[in-house]
Write a structure and sequence with these properties.
Two copies of one chain form a homodimer. By secondary structure, chain A is of the alpha+beta class. Chain A is built from six helices and ten strands; from the N terminus they run αββββββαββαβαβαα. At the A-B interface, strand 1, strand 3, strand 4, strand 5 and helix 2 of A face strand 1, strand 3, strand 4, strand 5 and helix 2 of B. Strand 3 of chain A pairs antiparallel with strand 3 (63-69) of chain B.
Chain lengths: 198, 198
């Protein structure tokens, strides 16, 4: 679809914002499906907010009148699947050729590695918007690219590397983004990539 | 310590508010201890807030100017311990003789039972302020009192019942509230009370 030139920038902005919401909405809808089908119990954590001022108007509920967004200390999603503790972060990638590691906070990376060391399942979901593809990258696969960056190598993961080191998540109507299928695949074939036996 | 009569009510109010914060602070300090000692990775979830209005003042960070507290859909704390998914709610009890079940939202009760069914460890921590005691009540022990309430029985758990069905949590300097010791006890002696083998 072609937009008139004048509107292009606004439209792009809106599209990107929509795509940003889209991944979160797709995961939330998928989690609701898993919950309803009794397959897993996985929730998005609330956005952390520093509350500074609260008003208590007469006969109505408390109104927060001054608050600030805080940096999350962990990841966006966690829960339980097949008895395993599950923990992940979901990221949109608007870049065509590579996924910049700056998308992941160092404390989130460390948190996911920590989860792995404690016997949990940690990964990131990357929505590669340019190709409308979603990938599940296990924390132990992410680790080698992180180490490369720390050793002054490239600060991103190329599209080819993502294809080689992560699993394409099947999209559908319901569930929208069946990422637990990818978890199943790893549990069956490469458990050491997502789960440490303790 | 005796306060002048006129101030007693205010002081009581402040004391109770402090006690309310105290349990949360004690658990947070304990979780930090567990994290630092690499024993468990357990965090408090952020308070869920419905954000309505956000201002973006020039050259400063976004200010939330209208927001409301939302009812949490799950519990306050979750994480991983010894490879197990851990999930719990912490409640102050200001009542001397019984713990009113109204302190627990029905969806929180259902959530904890659900965690149990999926092989996780679910419980509530009750701070019995009158006796300065803290108890860990496994979800399957809570279940029978919940059923009693649903069958038109009493809507609370008596102090004696708590003593018989939960474990007193040892208090100390660091960790402040060593609740994982109570989890260990149940895992060793009554695993069916907190964890279902799946």
């Amino acid at each position: 679809m072609n937009f008139p030139t004048k509107k292009t920038q606004t439209s792009n902005f809106i599209n990107k914002a929509n795509l940003g919401m889209q991944l979160e909405e797709e995961i939330n809808a998928t989690n609701l499906y898993y919950l309803t089908k009794d397959l897993a119990v996985i929730y998005k954590k609330p956005t952390p907010v520093q509350i500074v001022k609260v008003d208590y108007p007469m006969r109505s509920k408390a109104v927060i009148t001054e608050a600030y967004y805080k940096t999350p200390s962990t990841t966006d999603y966690n829960g339980i699947y097949k008895g395993y503790y599950i923990d992940f972060e979901a990221k949109e990638n608007h870049n065509k050729t590579a996924f910049p590691l700056a998308n992941i906070h160092p404390h989130q990376y460390k948190h996911l590695l920590n989860i792995y060391e404690h016997g949990g399942i940690g990964f990131i979901i990357i929505a590669w918007n340019h190709y409308s593809e979603n990938y599940l990258l296990p924390i132990k696969a992410l680790e080698k690219f992180w180490h490369r960056m720390e050793n002054d190598g490239r600060k991103s993961i190329t599209y080819l590397e993502i294809k080689e080191n992560s699993l394409l998540i099947k999209e559908g109507y319901n569930p929208r983004l069946d990422y637990l299928k990818a978890v199943d695949y790893y549990l069956d074939s490469n458990p050491e990539l997502i789960k440490k036996t303790i």
